Amino acid sequence: MGILEVSNVNKAFGGLKALNEVNLSVEEGTVHAIIGPNGAGKSTLLNCFVGRLIPDTGSVMFDGRSLLGIKPHQINQAGVARVFQTPEIFTELTILENVMIPAFAKYDGAFRINAWQSVASRGEIRDKAESVLSEVGLIEEKDGLVSSMSRGDKRRLEMAMCLVQDPKLLLLDEPTAGMSRADTNNTVDLLQRVGTNITKVVIEHDMHVVFSLADYITVLAQGTPIAGGKPADIKGNPKVQEAYLGGSHL
Ligand SMILES: Nc1ncnc2c1ncn2[C@@H]1O[C@H](COP(=O)(O)OP(=O)(O)O)[C@@H](O)[C@H]1O
Ligand SMILES: [Mg+2]
Questions:
Q1: pLDDT tens digits, 185-194
Q2: What is the pTM (predicted TM-score) of this model?
Q3: Ligand 1 centre from 171 Cα, in Å?
Q4: What's the total number of domains in the chain?
Q5: DSSP string, the chain
Q6: 13 CB under 6 A from ligand 1?
Q7: Closest residue by CA, ligand 1 atom 1
């Protein structure tokens, strides 16, 4: 039983079957990539994991609990964080303050549920925020303003804002979309280094990004998983090459 179990999921938009009998199991502690050409249904599937869409049929189970019909913020509190679609970054605040905000939100939620426990002190939250800033390589810049950050550093900040919530599952939505080769390499390096104990699901169009990142790859084409396996197996799979326009993307 994986930490995320998707069974027989179907989703249609009018006459268009965006997801067709999707089954997949994400094993705890692994990096699982879901790849496929444009229009394959990747975003639709991801939206079913975060409560933005409800499948027409089938089930999505996270950590033994159904995610269907649960509100996005409740899914987040259950331990699922969506990276790069993070809560708003406040450009007037410092980098450290931006990381403390989601940490406060997390403690506050826990406080409401466990009213007998005292809310964590500001000092504890600051320590936690500083430790994730060290992890992503931004600790030296912690008192700087977000408005002066480079694009690559903003990615690091977004990652820190997710890590500070101690998620069990990180969903990464096309982490290198629109980036230069250098920024792409930096981001892949960051993803390999941080949160190594956290299960990650990476949705990606660019196959090269996931080959170095993923333990397991599911290939989606026209709403259906057509292949699954280790990167080396996926690379040479003729069905995958065909889905990617006769192999020109490999
Ligand atoms: N809200 C929607 N309404 C109608 N059609 C949609 C909607 N969202 C996605 N689609 C269609 O579903 C298919 C899968 O889309 P999507 O999940 O965005 O693919 P991907 O992320 O793999 O590029 C596409 O044909 C797309 O046009
Ligand atoms: Mg998409």
A1: 888 999 999 9
A2: 0.89
A3: 18
A4: 2
A5: --SEEEEEEEEEETTEEEEEEEEEEEPTT-EEEEE-STTSSHHHHHHHHTTS---SEEEEEETTEE-TT--HHHHHHTTEEEETSPSPP-TTSBHHHHHHHHHHHHHHHHHHHSTTSPPPPHHHHHHHHHHHHHHHT-GGGTTSBGGG--HHHHHHHHHHHHHTT--SEEEEESTTTT--HHHHHHHHHHHHHS-TTSEEEEEES-HHHHHTT-SEEEEEETTEEEEEE-HHHHHT-HHHHHHTGGGTT-
A6: yes
A7: 13
